[in-house]
Design brief:
The chain is α/β, with parallel strands linked by helices. It is about 30% helix and about 25% strand. The protein folds into two domains: about 1-110 and about 200-260, Rossmann fold; about 115-185, Alpha-Beta Plaits (2-Layer Sandwich). The protein has eight helices and 15 strands. Bound molecules: magnesium ion. Magnesium ion binds near residues 21 and 23.
Length: about 260
């Protein structure tokens, strides 16, 4: 792995799409989800960090040179809220770990789920719900269309057992990212979503760059022509940023702007 400061103009001359992970790469990591249910009503609270206005401004400037893609496990609605000012021309929002892509006014579902897959997902959710009140680590489900995201205070073995019980053909992944479990079919991931976006735009996958920090980013970093990691200890890429966490994304933006202005 090379340092991101070693990146030269000739290394990125062919790049047409730059794809950013969100949590821990463009915004500070850490989400609190709280669901309070009474007999009459339910209150769902989501608390996350903001995208800094400084980084937003730089990312808007970066659109002069590249198509900017944002790829996250978050819902499309949430990403639209955070990155609204970056839309719509030359910007794509890939949500729910590659299930949806919002691009130039169209929300594309990258695969239609069949009855069998939907049934497995429903059975998993029904069984996970039974853990509430029984396991102290159980948090709340984050509102998503298809991706199952269960926030938890600690990794829970029962989650893996429940997925295994319903997923007879081992088609699903269960990723624990330190604050939540993500469960979805393995064939849909940030790597395939980046490939789909490139295909849609008629761009060779080699002409893409992607930056991430977590286990769900590895497919995207591997698929991209140039892969960048902000956490080289856990995620491997061609380059690593020296600024850690959410400042890593900003370091890449700064370097790309700098090289393009030269
Ligand atoms: Mg992340």
């Amino acid at each position: 792995m090379k340092k991101i400061t070693d990146l030269r103009k000739e290394d990125i001359e062919h790049i047409e799409i730059v794809c950013f992970d969100v949590d821990g790469v463009t915004i500070k990591k850490g989400t609190e989800i709280k669901e309070v249910r009474t007999l009459d009503d339910t209150t769902l609270t989501v608390k996350t960090s903001n995208l800094s206005p400084r980084l937003l401004k730089k990312m808007i400037e970066l659109k002069k040179y590249y198509v900017i893609a944002i790829s996250s496990g978050r819902s499309s609605l949430y990403l639209t809220k955070i990155f609204y000012e970056l839309l719509w021309k030359n910007a794509a929002l890939i949500s729910e770990i590659g299930i949806f892509t919002l691009f130039e006014g169209e929300l594309i579902q990258n695969e239609k789920f069949d009855d069998e897959t939907l049934g497995i997902m429903r059975n998993i959710v029904v069984d996970l719900k039974k853990l509430e009140g029984k396991n102290k680590s159980f948090g709340s489900f984050e509102a998503k269309q298809f991706l199952i995201t269960l926030h938890a205070y600690d990794e829970m073995q029962e989650v893996y057992d429940i997925v295994k019980k319903h997923d007879k053909n081992n088609q699903f992944y269960t990723i624990w990212n330190g604050e939540a479990f993500d469960i979805a079919p393995k064939r849909l991931n940030k790597g395939t979503a980046l490939e789909n976006l490139a295909k849609y735009l008629n761009i060779d996958i080699k002409n893409t760059m992607a930056i991430g920090n977590g286990p769900n980013d590895q497919d995207m970093i591997d698929a991209a022509g140039i892969g960048v990691t902000t956490e080289p200890k856990n995620v491997k890429g061609d380059y690593y940023t020296e600024s850690l966490g959410h400042l890593g994304g900003e370091q890449l933006v700064d370097i790309l702007l700098d090289i393009n202005k030269k």
